[in-house]
UniProtKB/TrEMBL annotation:
Transmembrane segments: none annotated. It comes from Streptomyces hyderabadensis. It comes from the Bacteria. This is Clp protease N-terminal domain-containing protein. The keyword Protease applies.
Length: 188
């Protein structure tokens, strides 16, 4: 599948691996793909994000992703659902961090402060994003998978990246409008 990726899309994948390494994560997650997309300049995805106002709010998006990591990767909607059942996630996080240190609930693999080296595999969620990007490209009748397809796939897939994007005014519909319809239909 990677032979169909454009230079920009490959750079996003490589950037996501870099973000996972920097975070000492065991695997590359969808959040790392979004962070790598935020790093890009001069690409279709960066154009779309800038057109939708994310350009000047990149730090806020990064902070929202860090906050989700501290909540063990739970999205805000998952946190609210647990609150409806009487579970205060922020209180749980505070207690765990008081006992084990800041970031103890983070899925970033900071086990004993050891730095993990070597190959990082892609999590199931990250693989789903890559597969969905392929489906988006096919649905839009595009020959290659670009970074814009990765962005569209992140906006389509339920989870922290889609929620953070939506909180900053970026939805699949708004991305489709900015990027143009392509030739096909929306791919769910």
């Amino acid at each position: 599948m990677f032979e169909r990726f454009t230079k920009d899309a490959r750079a996003v994948v490589q950037g996501a691996v870099g973000h996972a390494e920097e975070a000492l994560a065991e695997t590359v997650e969808p959040e790392h793909l979004l962070l790598a997309l935020l790093d890009r300049e001069g690409s279709r995805a960066s154009f779309a994000l800038a057109a939708l106002g994310v350009g000047e709010h990149r730090d806020a998006v990064r902070q929202a992703l860090r906050d989700a990591r501290r909540r063990a990767g739970l999205s805000q909607s998952e946190t609210e659902a647990l609150a409806a059942m009487g579970i205060d996630v922020l209180e749980v996080v505070a207690k765990v961090e008081a006992a084990h240190g800041v970031g103890a609930m983070s899925p970033d693999g900071r086990k004993g402060g050891r730095r993990r080296t070597g190959h990082r595999s892609f999590s199931r969620g990250a693989k789903e994003v890559l597969e969905k990007a392929l489906r988006v490209a096919v649905a839009r009748r595009d020959r290659h998978i670009g970074d814009e397809h990765l962005l569209l796939a992140l906006a389509l897939r339920p989870g922290v990246p889609a929620e953070v994007l939506a909180d900053h005014g970026v939805s699949h519909a708004s991305l489709t409008r900015v990027l143009g319809e392509g030739g096909g239909r929306a791919c769910a």
